[in-house]
Structure formats: C-alpha cells, structure tokens
Specification:
Layout: E1 12-22, E2 27-38, E3 46-59, E4 62-63, H1 66-77, H2 82-100
Antiparallel strand pairs: 1-2, 2-3, 3-4
C-alpha cells in the first residue's frame, strides 16, 4: 500500500473587525468582514478579500435608522449624494482594516 503524501494546506479565516470614527456632527460605527487566506509556500503572508463593510450612524451618541440618516444627509448635501459618501467611507474603513490587520500581506 502506498503512503499518503500531503501536498498543500491552505488556511482560511473569517475575520470581523469593528471601528468607530467621530465626524463631528455624527459618528460612524463600521464592521469590516473579510476572508483571510494564508498564501501557500510563504511565511506569514496573507491574502485579504473584504466581503462587506457595514456602516451604522449615530447622532449625539445614539444610533439612528439608516434611511433616516440617508434622508437627513441628502437634505443637507443634495439629492443622490449619500451613495458616494457611503462608498468613500466604506473605502476609508477598508483601508484602516488592511493597515491594522495582524495578517500582513507583505
């Protein structure tokens, strides 16, 4: 009977990281969801696949409804401005996640 030979092992982790940011007039709580995979045949290198960035908004320290905050934001800054704002903030939190993650890419 022949021996079984291990060829490769890949480690995948599901990671959730939470952040907060004070924007002055309001605050943002963010949850970053990602899949982290060990890069085969390397020591301490990881690949990141950020699957979702979830933003929650607070005014005076109290959580507010998403639709209510969106409506308020667009009343202040113009119609159809919230989508771009949400996208930019999501990218900020994604960058913060990649910068602070203990699973380094280099």
């Amino acid at each position: 009977m022949s021996k079984i030979k291990k060829v490769q092992e890949i480690t995948d982790l599901s990671v959730y990281t939470s952040f907060t940011k004070d924007e002055g007039m309001f605050q943002i709580e963010a949850g970053v969801y990602s899949m982290v995979t060990a890069v085969p045949e390397t020591i301490s290198k990881w690949g990141h696949d950020v699957t979702e960035v979830e933003l929650k908004f607070l005014i005076n320290g109290k959580k507010v409804q998403y639709t209510g905050f969106k409506t308020l934001y667009e009343q202040l800054y113009g119609e159809d401005t919230f989508g771009d704002f949400y996208y930019k903030k999501s990218k900020e939190f994604e960058a913060a996640y990649l910068k602070t993650s203990p699973y380094k890419t280099k």
